[in-house]
Amino acid sequence: MRSSVIQIILRRDNLNEVILALHKRLDNMKANLPSEAATVEQINKYFLEQQEITEQMLKILGDTEDATTSEILGCKDAIKNFREAMKQADTKMEQLSLRDVEYNLGKALCAAWNKDQEVLGKLKFCPNIRAEKWNNPKDFSWETGKGFVPSKAVLGEPIGNLANNDQYLINPIYEETIMQEAEKQSMMMNLVTHRPMNGPSIFIPERDRGGIELKWLTSYGQKIDATKSNMPTRTELKAYTLAGYVPFFDEFGEDVYVDLGKMFLEDFTEAYGQEFDRQCLIADDDPFTGAMNMDEAEVARIQSTDESKLTYLDFRAAELKVEPEERKYCKWFLNETVLNHIANIQDDNGNPIWRKPGDSMPGRIDGYDVVESRLLPQLADLEADKVIAIFMNPKRIIHGNRKGIEIKRFDETTEGLEYGELFMRFRKRDGFLVTRPKKNMVLLKTATA
User: How many whole angstroms separate alpha carbon 244 and alpha carbon 429?
Assistant: First the structure.
């Protein structure tokens, strides 16, 4: 009897923790209801996520057997009130133009430079006080007179003196807009596979096609022969921190908010877009390895050490090194000068066999889409054993995305003292991994010397 009473008490204690946790999460969600978004897609995505969370909460309550009717009803009423608040927020939410984002971003940059935490708080930026696992902007709210108030404790670390912290995470709404603009500067961001990362690394299971062995059973009670599946290998995808500095020559004043935000947006997206493509295509253990330097990729060679004997037949031979199931997802990646050379190949009568006068540059080679990149070797740089083009399915490249873009003022520099140049540092965390290059990726190369 005594043990059953103790079990009931323990269940009640656990139940109280569950109910308190649900109420706390609802309070946090209410405090972080956004009043603006950059796109309709952002608005729809946010409300869909919140709807899924509230449905999960209701399921938890439905599975709880030891709660009293009043406790369950109290939690359900709180969820109902939050849904009503979401409806009101949906009707009042303001859709921001790109200029609005630039203005608010510029205003936040000025505030970060001038250590104006009130402006940063109202723009829903937050201090980043963690070294490895960064803070989540949703975990902080700004309260007049109190400053940044954490909605939950930072596990394992003290909050510290927020007033002296010069590192801030950009409002996720503006971060998403920044990354959408970066996609326009990159050839690869819309093509690769994106994986969210909550920690410094994740493990990706890899195995060749046909990893599961199947058996037909033709009679009732037939013995199933033992099968040995091709077990996947676990490949680690690591994320590292990318840092850069955006220089400014003028003081941060409120009369230049739009120009300041636009300058930061353009400088960041151009640099990040190019670096994203570099890591996907040509990086050589710096710190990742791009497709062009994958040792396990298949190799197809032309008959010369330069472009002199390059024909469309070389492309066709390279394509056949990839199995047809994979080939239908593949694209050609090459420099525009190489594409121009191929398009201008002439027949015996001197007529272009592919691109006639007045035609635009072709977007396909032998029926496969072409992606041009100036990072890949130019025609004039071709020499013995040099990559001409890459044939692959870009989804084989995995981009590990750790959310968050951090900004920090930098003024105590040599450039600042000598030339009055100011810097705003930014940091973002990413990982890149080319998966299963063997039999799925082909490097078209010149002949060896």
Answer: 12
